[in-house]
Amino acid sequence: MLANYPLMAALTAIIFAQAIKVPIAYLLKRQTSLILVTSTGGMPSSHSACVSALITALALEYGASSPLVAIASTFGIIVMFDSMGVRRQSGEQGILLNQLVVEFNQLQSKVLRLTHEAEVTEEQQEKHLKEYLGHKPIEVFFGILTGILVAFVVRNIFY
Predict the structure, then answer these.
(1) Residues 151 and 53: beta-carbon distance below 8 Å
(2) Which residue, 64, 73, 68, is CA-closest to 144?
(3) Which has the closest alpha carbon to 41: 70, 24, 21?
(4) pLDDT tens string 104-140
(5) Which tens digits make up the pLDDT trace of 84-109?
(6) pLDDT class for 81, splitting at 50, 70, 90?
(7) For a Cys-Cys bond, which of 36, 49, 71, 101 suits 13, CB 3.0-4.6 Å?
(8) Are residues 32 and 59 in the same domain?
């Protein structure tokens, strides 16, 4: 028997969701890199996988009417709503700001060439805000499914 099954299910869901981002990005023909394993955003949502695994594990362990399930569900709704709302909007603003910076650097390079001054450094051009912070609703949905599945798998392995 696993000492803290709900915690292990939640942590396993995070690790699993982060690990499968690379093959999923490859299958969806998106830019792939091992950096995806440690990044926020993407398919599936590890935030949603974590909280849904926690909720599922608590429901299996203590029953659906447990106050722990109610607390975890409330927490989970907030986490998932935040990942689709505030954090996603921050990412979209990051995209826009990065486009503005690129355009500004291009304009600055042209002005510097016209005035025969030094070029804009590569470091200045490569300064980017993080763009992939939040999740699309479909990423949250698959995160929820991932979390539920992981909770059942962890339970079957350790019980």
Answers:
(1) yes
(2) 73
(3) 21
(4) 766 766 666 666 555 545 554 455 544 455 668 888 8
(5) 776 556 656 666 766 777 777 667 66
(6) confident
(7) 49
(8) yes
Q: What is the pTM of this model?
A: 0.70
| For helices 67-84 and 137-158, angle between their N-to-C axes, nearest 10 degrees | 140
Same domain? 79 vs 100: no
> Do 107 and 61 share a domain, yes or no?
no
Residue 105 structural domain: 89-133
| Domain shared by 39 and 62, yes or no | yes
Q: How many structural domains are present in the chain?
A: 2
Q: Round to whole Å and give the CA distance between 144 and 48.
A: 5
Residues 6+ apart with CB under 8 A from 63: 69
Same domain (yes/no): 18, 54: yes
Find how far residue 112's CA is from the centre of its chain. 40
